Amino acid sequence: MLKHLSSQERRTLANRGALKRKNPGKIRLSVFRSGRHIEVQAIDDVKGCTVCAASSKEKAFTGHGWNVAGAEMLGKIFAERAVKAGIANNCYFERGRYLYHGRVKALGDAIRANGVNI
After folding, report:
1. Can you give the pTM of this predicted structure?
2. E strand or H helix at 18
3. What's the half-sphere exposure (Cβ side, CA atoms, 13 Å) at 47?
């Protein structure tokens, strides 16, 4: 069983595998947040590619990635890209190890409010 991985890495892989089995054929909206930035990307697990993404590291992003207002701005930007890519009705939100609170919640709510059904 993947003994070269730590217990946290094995748990991460198991959780992602469970999500893929529960939501076959759906696009996964994966969130990453650090102390200064927040990123979201839409991943098609069947094809193994990223459909669209948005990050607070982009030069066009004018807000701050470390606060709730910046996460809301990023959610709006991502939702526009997701609607343009045609994945607005075929995706689910994967928050990863982060609690659904603060910036992650603001990001998810902003994505929903701007036309993506997650």
Report:
1. 0.85
2. helix 7-22
3. 9
